[in-house]
């Protein structure tokens, strides 16, 4: 059976999941820190692959710090947002923090709703300021930078 998305292993241990309309690039600057850069529209075509990519990190290195950077006009369908909300809520014991850089007020509000429904409180940090996000990433993985 052909998958609706592609999974590529890139240089430096990075992984890219992609469809024609969306991509997720996972970088691991050190054990226990995952940086995921997202772009496009996630309409659910990935199924659970986007969270499955993080399962090994949580199992091996908990508590894990996640950094999500949205690029351009990243959007996600309702089912996708629900899947992420459920996953974060179910895995919060294995997470140290979930840091999300958003590029629009709309996405900021969407992420605030996700934080509310995942019942994770201060575990999730939402950034509108790229410099503050980069500073938080630098504290967690010195020497790393946004790509």
Q: What is the CATH H-level superfamily?
A: STAS domain
**CATH class membership:** Alpha Beta
Largest sheet at a glance? Answer: 7 strands, mixed
Q: What is the residue-averaged pLDDT?
A: 88
How far the N terminus sits from the C terminus, by CA atoms, comes to 33 Å
The SSE order reads EEEEHEHEHEH
SS-based structural class? alpha/beta
Overall domain count: 1
CATH architecture designation: 2-Layer Sandwich
Order of strands, widest sheet: 1-2-3-4-5-6-7
Number of helices, counting only DSSP H or I runs of 4 residues or more = 4
Strand composition percent: 25-35%
> If you compute it from the alpha carbons, what radius of gyration comes out, rounded to the nearest whole angstrom?
14 Å
What percent of residues adopt helix (DSSP H or I)? 25-40%
Global shape: globular
Q: How many beta-strand segments? A: 7
CATH topology heading: Transcription Regulator spoIIAA
Q: Indicate the low-confidence ranges by residue numbers.
A: none
Report a brief summary of the structure:
The chain has 4 helices and 7 strands. It is of the alpha/beta class and 147 residues long. The chain has a single domain, classed as 2-Layer Sandwich (Transcription Regulator spoIIAA).
């Amino acid at each position: 059976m052909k998958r609706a998305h592609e999974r590529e292993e890139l240089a430096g241990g990075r992984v890219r999941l992609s469809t024609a309309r969306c991509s997720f690039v996972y970088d691991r600057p050190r054990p226990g820190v995952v940086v995921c850069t997202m772009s496009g529209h996630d309409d659910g075509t990935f199924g659970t692959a986007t969270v499955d990519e993080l399962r090994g990190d949580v199992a091996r290195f908990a508590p894990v710090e996640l950094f999500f950077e949205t690029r351009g006009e990243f959007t996600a369908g309702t089912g996708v947002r629900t899947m992420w909300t459920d996953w974060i809520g179910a895995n919060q014991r294995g997470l140290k923090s979930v840091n999300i850089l958003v590029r629009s007020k709309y996405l900021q509000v969407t992420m605030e709703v996700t934080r509310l429904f995942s019942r994770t409180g201060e575990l999730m940090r939402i950034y509108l300021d790229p410099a503050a996000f980069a500073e938080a990433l630098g504290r967690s993985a010195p020497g790393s930078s946004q790509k």
